[in-house]
Amino acid sequence: MKSDLKHAKTGLEAIYQSYNRRAYVHPDPLEFLYEYRDARDREIVGLVASALAYGRVAQILKSVRTVLNRMTPAPATFLKTASLPGLRNHFAGFKHRFATGEHLALMLMGAKGIIERHGSLRAGFMSGVKKSDESVLPAMTLFCNRLVSAGDPGHLVPLPERGSACKRMNLFLRWMVRKDAVDPGGWDGIPASKLLIPLDVHMHRICTNLGLTKRKQADMRAVIEITAAFARIMPSDPVRYDFALTRFGIRAEMSPEEIPDYLFSSTDRLPD
């Protein structure tokens, strides 16, 4: 069993060391966070960028840029003085696939409410964190319900209690909690060990091929199963390999088929 885990970790670490670099970020909405040094701005940018991270990559980048260009001089300052009618007017005509300016305005108003009550999005999230929690799921559930307090922002904000994988919210948390060559961090006090894997169809396929899950659906149960598998390799940081693995298929020159076969052979799967 120990040799299997060592083998898996060695392969994943090789991919991490090769691809967990800023040079491989584009095209990824994560790149927008690098433009903001102030954590108060960066957490708002992260919320917007992750919420819009679905659909064609080119359109995601265009939509996020459009929103940020309207949140001048800085997102935190912009939101501090915003009102719901003002946000509706500011983002009138905005559309990103199924999301409208109304959805965006309601999400941002929910974020404003959290900031007014707790001082920052981080503090608002931290208010729901308990040491006894096995993961961030309970705190994330509370946080998402607070984000919809101003009205229904559609699928921009997931409701974890419905069983969704909550890929974009878990992506947001990865960006904000982890700190390495790619993830900027800033949300101290939340252990990386409690993060959940950001799971979409693409990552689900990769993890299925690697033998990390038998779940057919990319739902929250699959998220928990896959996160547990990664935690057996890296208990302190189970989402460590998310960015590097998802480069295969996101970047045009990298295909999932290129993920080295030596990661898990037929006899070197993670132990039951």
Would you give an account of this structure?
This is TIGR02757 family protein. InterPro entries: CHP02757, DNA_glycosylase. With 272 residues, the chain is an all-alpha fold. The protein folds into two domains: 1-24 and 197-272; 28-164. The chain has twelve helices and two strands; from the N terminus they run H-H-H-H-H-E-E-H-H-H-H-H-H-H. It has a two-stranded antiparallel sheet with strand order 1-2. The chain starts with a helix and ends in a 22-residue tail after the last helix. Mean pLDDT is 91; it is low at 265-272.
Rounded to the nearest angstrom, the distance between the terminal CA atoms is 9 Å
| Overall form | globular
Count of domain modules: 2
Number of helices: 12
Cα-atom radius of gyration: 19 Å
Major beta sheet, strand line-up: 1-2
Mean pLDDT: 91
Structural class: mainly alpha
Uncertain regions spanning at least 5 consecutive residues: 265-272
How can the largest sheet be summarized?
A: 2 strands, antiparallel
The percent range for strand residues is under 5%
Oligomer: single chain
Helix content: 40-55%
Helix/strand order, N-terminal first: HHHHHEEHHHHHHH
* Strand segment tally: 2
Question: Which properties best describe this structure?
Answer:
disordered C terminus, globular, 2 strands, mainly alpha, 272 residues, 2 domains, 1% strand, 12 helices, two-stranded antiparallel sheet
